[in-house]
Amino acid sequence: MDTPYFECEKCGKCCRNLNVKGDAGLMLFRDEIKLFPEELVQPCLGIGKRPDHSSFRILTYQLTSNICPHLKNKNCLIHEKRPSMCRGYPLRFREPEPDKYYFEMAPECTALEKIKREYGDTTQISFDPEKEPQAFLSRREESTLFWKLPSGKYKRWVFNLKTKQWKRYRR
User: What pTM does this model have?
Assistant: First the structure.
Protein backbone atom coordinates (compact mmCIF):
# COMPACT_ATOMS: atom_id res chain seq x y z
CA MET A 1 0.00 0.00 0.00
CA ASP A 2 1.25 3.50 -0.83
CA THR A 3 1.97 5.95 1.96
CA PRO A 4 -0.75 8.62 1.90
CA TYR A 5 0.37 12.17 1.14
CA PHE A 6 -0.92 15.04 3.28
CA GLU A 7 -2.37 17.89 1.29
CA CYS A 8 -4.19 20.72 3.05
CA GLU A 9 -7.89 21.00 2.14
CA LYS A 10 -7.91 24.72 3.09
CA CYS A 11 -11.07 24.29 5.17
CA GLY A 12 -9.99 26.71 7.92
CA LYS A 13 -10.69 24.28 10.79
CA CYS A 14 -7.14 24.67 12.04
CA CYS A 15 -7.72 28.42 12.46
CA ARG A 16 -10.85 28.01 14.59
CA ASN A 17 -11.40 26.71 18.10
CA LEU A 18 -7.91 27.80 19.09
CA ASN A 19 -9.00 28.43 22.67
CA VAL A 20 -11.77 25.88 23.30
CA LYS A 21 -11.25 25.48 27.04
CA GLY A 22 -10.71 29.20 27.51
CA ASP A 23 -7.52 28.85 29.54
CA ALA A 24 -4.87 28.49 26.79
CA GLY A 25 -4.51 29.64 23.19
CA LEU A 26 -2.39 28.99 20.11
CA MET A 27 1.27 28.92 21.18
CA LEU A 28 3.53 31.57 19.65
CA PHE A 29 7.28 32.03 19.82
CA ARG A 30 8.77 35.42 20.65
CA ASP A 31 9.54 36.28 17.02
CA GLU A 32 5.93 35.47 16.00
CA ILE A 33 4.00 37.77 18.35
CA LYS A 34 4.51 40.70 15.96
CA LEU A 35 2.16 38.93 13.51
CA PHE A 36 -0.84 39.66 15.75
CA PRO A 37 -2.39 42.73 17.36
CA GLU A 38 -0.79 43.31 20.76
CA GLU A 39 -4.14 43.05 22.57
CA LEU A 40 -4.57 39.46 21.31
CA VAL A 41 -1.26 38.16 22.69
CA GLN A 42 -0.51 37.05 26.26
CA PRO A 43 2.33 35.06 27.83
CA CYS A 44 1.99 31.26 27.80
CA LEU A 45 4.91 29.38 29.38
CA GLY A 46 7.60 30.73 31.66
CA ILE A 47 10.41 29.58 33.94
CA GLY A 48 11.93 31.12 37.02
CA LYS A 49 11.63 31.66 40.73
CA ARG A 50 8.47 33.80 40.42
CA PRO A 51 6.83 35.65 37.52
CA ASP A 52 7.70 38.99 39.14
CA HIS A 53 11.37 38.05 39.68
CA SER A 54 14.01 39.71 37.48
CA SER A 55 15.36 36.33 36.29
CA PHE A 56 11.92 35.10 35.16
CA ARG A 57 11.90 34.16 31.47
CA ILE A 58 8.88 33.89 29.22
CA LEU A 59 9.48 31.01 26.80
CA THR A 60 6.34 31.23 24.67
CA TYR A 61 3.27 33.40 24.18
CA GLN A 62 -0.30 32.62 23.14
CA LEU A 63 -3.02 34.00 20.94
CA THR A 64 -6.09 34.84 23.04
CA SER A 65 -8.61 34.78 20.20
CA ASN A 66 -10.65 31.64 19.53
CA ILE A 67 -10.58 32.35 15.78
CA CYS A 68 -7.42 33.59 14.13
CA PRO A 69 -7.80 37.25 13.14
CA HIS A 70 -5.99 36.45 9.87
CA LEU A 71 -8.63 33.93 8.71
CA LYS A 72 -10.88 35.38 5.99
CA ASN A 73 -13.22 33.19 3.91
CA LYS A 74 -11.27 30.04 4.86
CA ASN A 75 -8.01 31.63 3.72
CA CYS A 76 -5.02 32.65 5.80
CA LEU A 77 -4.02 36.23 5.04
CA ILE A 78 -0.49 35.62 6.38
CA HIS A 79 -0.04 32.10 5.01
CA GLU A 80 3.57 32.63 3.85
CA LYS A 81 4.69 33.94 7.26
CA ARG A 82 2.24 32.20 9.61
CA PRO A 83 3.43 30.94 13.03
CA SER A 84 5.30 27.66 13.49
CA MET A 85 2.38 25.96 15.24
CA CYS A 86 0.19 26.76 12.22
CA ARG A 87 2.87 25.45 9.87
CA GLY A 88 3.06 22.24 11.85
CA TYR A 89 -0.63 21.50 11.66
CA PRO A 90 -1.93 18.77 11.70
CA LEU A 91 0.78 17.84 14.22
CA ARG A 92 0.16 18.78 17.86
CA PHE A 93 2.45 18.65 20.83
CA ARG A 94 1.23 16.60 23.81
CA GLU A 95 2.58 15.76 27.25
CA PRO A 96 0.52 12.91 28.73
CA GLU A 97 2.92 12.28 31.63
CA PRO A 98 5.76 14.23 33.22
CA ASP A 99 8.80 14.26 30.94
CA LYS A 100 7.01 12.19 28.28
CA TYR A 101 5.89 14.13 25.27
CA TYR A 102 5.01 13.37 21.70
CA PHE A 103 3.32 14.77 18.62
CA GLU A 104 -0.16 13.63 17.65
CA MET A 105 -2.29 14.20 14.55
CA ALA A 106 -5.23 16.61 14.93
CA PRO A 107 -8.39 14.50 14.65
CA GLU A 108 -10.53 17.38 13.33
CA CYS A 109 -8.31 17.93 10.28
CA THR A 110 -10.36 17.54 7.07
CA ALA A 111 -7.35 16.30 5.08
CA LEU A 112 -6.68 13.59 7.68
CA GLU A 113 -10.34 12.57 7.62
CA LYS A 114 -10.04 12.11 3.86
CA ILE A 115 -6.87 10.01 4.27
CA LYS A 116 -8.61 7.81 6.86
CA ARG A 117 -11.56 7.23 4.51
CA GLU A 118 -9.24 6.24 1.66
CA TYR A 119 -6.51 4.35 3.55
CA GLY A 120 -8.03 3.46 6.91
CA ASP A 121 -6.11 4.11 10.10
CA THR A 122 -2.50 4.54 9.13
CA THR A 123 0.59 5.46 11.08
CA GLN A 124 2.57 6.92 8.20
CA ILE A 125 1.69 10.00 6.19
CA SER A 126 4.03 11.78 3.78
CA PHE A 127 4.50 15.54 3.92
CA ASP A 128 6.17 17.82 1.43
CA PRO A 129 9.75 18.02 2.82
CA GLU A 130 10.06 21.63 1.67
CA LYS A 131 6.93 22.72 3.49
CA GLU A 132 5.04 21.81 6.60
CA PRO A 133 5.51 20.43 9.18
CA GLN A 134 9.29 20.83 8.78
CA ALA A 135 9.21 24.45 9.98
CA PHE A 136 7.38 23.34 13.11
CA LEU A 137 9.68 20.39 13.76
CA SER A 138 12.74 22.59 13.34
CA ARG A 139 11.56 24.43 16.46
CA ARG A 140 10.91 21.33 18.54
CA GLU A 141 13.78 22.19 20.90
CA GLU A 142 12.10 25.48 21.73
CA SER A 143 8.67 23.90 21.98
CA THR A 144 9.84 21.13 24.34
CA LEU A 145 12.26 23.16 26.49
CA PHE A 146 9.58 23.81 29.10
CA TRP A 147 9.06 20.07 29.65
CA LYS A 148 12.73 19.09 29.41
CA LEU A 149 13.99 21.34 32.20
CA PRO A 150 14.65 19.51 35.48
CA SER A 151 11.63 20.29 37.65
CA GLY A 152 13.62 20.46 40.89
CA LYS A 153 15.97 23.13 39.58
CA TYR A 154 13.51 25.23 37.57
CA LYS A 155 10.02 26.35 38.50
CA ARG A 156 7.66 26.13 35.57
CA TRP A 157 4.77 28.55 35.12
CA VAL A 158 1.70 28.62 32.85
CA PHE A 159 -0.28 31.79 32.15
CA ASN A 160 -4.03 31.14 32.48
CA LEU A 161 -6.13 33.18 30.06
CA LYS A 162 -9.29 32.93 32.20
CA THR A 163 -7.71 34.30 35.36
CA LYS A 164 -4.98 36.38 33.63
CA GLN A 165 -2.52 35.02 36.19
CA TRP A 166 0.55 32.84 36.22
CA LYS A 167 0.03 29.47 37.86
CA ARG A 168 2.77 27.11 38.96
CA TYR A 169 2.92 24.08 36.70
CA ARG A 170 3.03 20.82 38.62
CA ARG A 171 2.71 17.39 37.12
Answer: 0.82
